[in-house]
Amino acid sequence: MSERTVSNIVIRVWLDATESIMGTNGLKAVLNYSGRSYILDNYPDYSFDKNYTEEDFSTMAATFQQILGVQGLKAVLRQIGRASAKTTIDMGVYDSLKELPPVERLFGAAEIYAVASGRGTAKMEGTTIIYDNPICTLCEGIKTHTPVCSIICGYMDELAAWSGVPEMKTVETHCKAMGDDTCRYEVKTEQ
Description:
Distance between the termini: 48 Å
Largest sheet: 4 strands, antiparallel
């Protein structure tokens, strides 16, 4: 049996966001198709307890690509990312950052996301915020010529809007689905 390394809150926020974007039947379709329909009867709480495996998470994510294709996957995941960020913002996860200047607030939120999700690191390179996730399982089993992990792009875009820097845009510059060693995102000023 696989090691349980994914926390309840990651799965729960993902479920809530998926349902808000795709509706209850859309969420049911994803869970049924991925063989994870048992989750419908036992939603996880919002704790950091680790009750899910990387396989659970990546199988649910890969289901989007199987159902929607690559372009549909990217569009839906970006919206789910935004909805996920709204949920965590509303939960108060980033409240300790409210008094910081906007760019520092956004960078702090990216750092908190990396720590809370147990995935990747956040750093500044000049005026660009970099989120790098070499252990991404979102695109596991997907092979494309374009980055597909747009859920993080949507998440970071929503954090940018909350932080007061809405002119920031997140772009995935490396993706394991393209054969890269990592999934890397750059949050920078739109030009």
